[in-house]
Amino acid sequence: MVDHISKYFTSVNVKQISIFLLVIFMLVLPHFASPYFVSFFALLFMYIAISQCWNIFSGYTGYWSMGHQVFLGVGAYTMAILVTKFNYYDYFVLPICGVMAILTAILFAITSLRLRGSYFTIYSIAFAEIFKIIALNLDWLTGGGQGILLPPVYKLYDFYYQMLVMVIVVSGVAYFIKRSPFGYALFAIKDDEDAAEAVGIKTFLHKVVILSLSGFFLGIIGGLYAEFLTYIDPYVAFADIPLLVAILSAIMGGLGEVSGPILGALIYVPIMEYLWISFPYVYLIILGFSLVLIIRFIPDGILSYIPKIQQVFSYFKSKT
Amino acid sequence: MFMLWVQLIVQGFLLGSLYMLLSLGLNAVYGILKAVNYAHGTFVMLGAYTAYWLFVLFGINPYISVVLAALLSALIGALGYELFVKPFIGRPNFGSIALITTYGLALVLINTARYLWTDVLRGIRLVEAPISIGDISISRPYLYGGCIAIGIAIIFYFFIEHTRLGKAIRATSQDRIAAMLMSINTDRLSRLVYTIGVGLGGAAGALISPIFAISPEGGAVLGLKAIMVVIIGGLGSYIGCVIGGLLLGFSEVFGAFLLGASNQPLIYLLTFAIVLALRPSGIMGEK
Question: Which residue, among A239, A92, A104, A224, has the nearest Cα to A164 in the 3D structure?
Answer without folding.
Answer: A224
